[in-house]
Amino acid sequence: MTVEVTTPAAVAVPGARMRREIAEQPAKWHDALTRGGEELRAVRARIWNRPPKAVLFVARGTSDHAALYANYLVQTALGVPAASASPSVVTLYGGAPDLRDVLVVAVSQSGGSPDLVAFLEMARAQGAATLTLTNDTDSALARISDETIDILAGRETAVAATKSYTGELLALAALFAGEETLAQLPALPELGEKVLAVATGPVEELAARYRYADRIMTAARGYSSATAREAALKLVETSYVSAHGMSSADLLHGPVALLDQSVPLLCFTSAGPDAREIAQLVDLAGERGVDVDVIGDGTVTGRTLPAVLPRDVSPELRPVLEILPAQLLAAEVAVARGYDPDAPRGLSKVTRTY
Ligand code: F6R
């Protein structure tokens, strides 16, 4: 006799919400660029007409990866210094730097983290202009910020942030990218659909291999280093694998010693200034028998993945697309390892007794 014991949560298909939210992203980007377009253009015009002396981002986790991406944009396109601030400067040490002529940008899908609120309050008191990018315009951060951008990702129900991450990237690109990059934004929703369609099968195959890995390294350079970090975080959160995302420059000097046959390496690169270094890393890893793969347009290839990104996407916009296969991978590895990426560890479980 077969006895099946289930909890109400067990009825849900593991990863169904995360997969749905991953798939929704291109439509959400279209919405953000159309419905949210006017607001983005207005805030952008204010920033570019009178650029601040510096831009300071404040964010955590996934949102901090979006901020890392924006650091590159601000410095290369807007041409002013940018950095990510540590909220503990305020919350642990009571710091209050002079922030006159500085734009402080909080990036937070929930808009509710008390340490970010404390940082923004300090920033206002210290003379900064403040801007919040959030998925909740009723949040504490939105209430205290001079200006707020709604990233319009819609309610995110899976534990791991996916569509709110790319919503943040997109809004940051709309605010801080140069004109040439800006002109490419409307093409992203269609390209995103293509990436998801092309990547799903190959990523499932990769997940079947990663299922057995205890450790995974991810690497990229420049704009895409945000992707490497975010991909690693998604794998850690959903699959409980020890994943580490690094700049390929840092990885090549020292931590490269970690790489062997038991530690797969996943790189992110396409045609552009970062490809040469990633090719060097892929060759080195290959010589050591490392299971190395590349998410990109085929300029550099690893063991199995085909080109999953279209050609001719500028390095500035690649992070919006190349995280899609990595999000899928995290969901698939979690499911392959027997976890439900939609729910925190131990809370959602199917128990089958035969
Ligand atoms: C990752 C994730 C966290 C959050 C972080 C910041 O999937 O959800 O890393 O990104 O806790 O949260 P927010 O963006 O709400 O400030």
Summarize the structure.
It is built from 13 helices and 11 strands. It has helices at 16-34, 37-49, 61-78, 88-91, 114-125, 140-144, 163-176, 179-182, 188-210, 225-239, 248-252, 275-287, 318-336, and strands spanning 3-6, 54-59, 82-84, 102-108, 129-134, 147-150, 215-220, 242-247, 265-268, 292-295, 350-353.
Polypeptide structure, described:
With 354 residues, the protein is an alpha/beta fold. Helix content is 46%, strand content 15%. The chain has 13 helices and 11 strands. The chain has helices at residues 16-34, 37-49, 61-78, 88-91, 114-125, 140-144, 163-176, 179-182, 188-210, 225-239, 248-252, 275-287, 318-336, and strands spanning 3-6, 54-59, 82-84, 102-108, 129-134, 147-150, 215-220, 242-247, 265-268, 292-295, 350-353. The protein has a 5-stranded parallel β-sheet, with helices on both faces. Strands 8-7-9-10 form a 4-stranded parallel β-sheet, sandwiched between helices. A two-stranded antiparallel ribbon has the order 1-11. β7 (215-220), α10 (225-239) and β8 form a beta-alpha-beta unit. The longest helix has 23 residues, at 188-210. The structure holds fructose -6-phosphate. The site of fructose -6-phosphate has 12 residues, from α3 and α10.
